[in-house]
Design a protein that fits this description.
single chain; rod-shaped
């Protein structure tokens, strides 16, 4: 029994090492989708890249290439975060344009 415990611990540790932590990347992709990235061309490109990188990471993990899989997950997260930033940037530009137009309307009404 004493010999069996270390073996079981090693097996448990080995099994845990095979799983790939995709939570951060998946959350970043979800945030990009919720921010409307799919409607902004530049953001949509990075959102699509993030999804493809996530898929590639999962394939690499299944093939046993954990280092490359982790690298693809990091890239997926970065692309998803960039998609969020780009979609927010577009929203802010739209709001600024609307504000400028409201100012123009107010100025023309006051003349």
């Amino acid at each position: 029994m004493k010999r069996l415990i270390p073996v079981l611990l090693l097996l448990a540790a080995g099994c845990g090492a095979q799983t790939l932590k995709t939570d951060d990347s998946a959350s970043a992709i979800r945030a990009a989708e919720e921010s409307g990235a799919a409607k902004v061309p530049r953001a949509s490109l990075h959102l699509q890249l993030a999804k493809e990188e996530m898929d590639q990471a999962q394939k690499l993990a299944k093939a046993g290439d954990r280092d490359k899989a982790t690298s693809f997950l990091t890239r997926a997260e970065a692309d998803a975060e960039l998609a969020v930033v780009l979609s927010h940037e577009q929203s802010e530009k739209n709001e600024a344009s609307q504000a400028v137009e409201r100012v123009r309307v107010l100025q023309s009404e006051n003349r």
